[in-house]
Amino acid sequence: MAPYYLTYDLQLTTYNLRLTTYNLRLTTYDLQLTTEDTSMEGLIKRMITAGFFVGIMLAGLYGGRLTFVLLFGIIAAISLWEFFGIVLDKVSRRDRLRKFLGMLLGLMPIVLATILQLGLAGSREAFLAVASLLFAPAIFLSFVYELYTQSEKPFVNIAFVILGMVYIGVPFSLLEFIAFNGEHFYADIVLGLLLLSWANDTGAYLSGSRWGKTPLFQRISPKKTWEGSIGGALITFVIAAILAYFFKDLTLTNWLILAAIIIVFGTLGDLVESMLKRSQHLKDSGTIMPGHGGLLDRFDGFIFMLPYVAAYLLLVR
Fold this sequence. Notes:
Blueprint: H1 2-34, H2 40-62, H3 65-87, H4 93-117, H5 124-139, H6 141-147, H7 154-179, E1 180-181, E2 184-185, H8 187-211, E3 215-217, E4 221-225, H9 226-246, H10 252-279, H11 295-316
Antiparallel strand pairs: 1-2, 3-4
């Protein structure tokens, strides 16, 4: 019986070592989350990045329909690239091809929505019929691809590829339905949604930094607090009232309802992306925006609230 006990003890020792390694990884991750660049140099870097980003956003929003589509198409593409960089392997050439396949499938809903909303198809009904027929076969290409990759987890890869389309591609495609309605181009509404989303984020951060004590969801995002969320909500409602004064496409009531939707689902979207990064022991989704992380970090709440905002706006429009 001695060899059996020795084997059992070794297994327990190995298991404990794995637990210790995992705890160390979590500790390192938590330290990364609590470590911020608070130096003047870091602040200047963030301000320059934010100014440059706002300029690009305004140019894309108000440059016309084409620049609008290009702007959010690029944002969606980079967000997909960051998402697949988090969840998919990136070792071999086949892994990189899978990533490109995921991006193509993720951008497909946006391309179809753009063609439909800009009236680029000859017949709207015929286009919808053809797009519906080709949609499922396009998705099943990911199944076909995994047949030849010799991956140890083919269905996990397929699931992540489809998730990228659902999580990022579909919400950005719904943005086309918010922005375009026949001859009307509602750039002001889209800008308003962005401002409300950013007001909620910024207000929650500032309020939480000053008064935050009660954790909102400590297991997922230890630094978010109820006090911060309430502060962010109040600031978002104030911004909504200001937007109603300047942007007359929607009434004050509509702007306040949109603010409430963004407060709830924008916050949940932020938590969902935090859950994604925490599951992979990452602090940021990318490094494309110095001092701010990746684009997915900046648009996580905006992406998550789009289906709910689109449903409301299409209902009242």
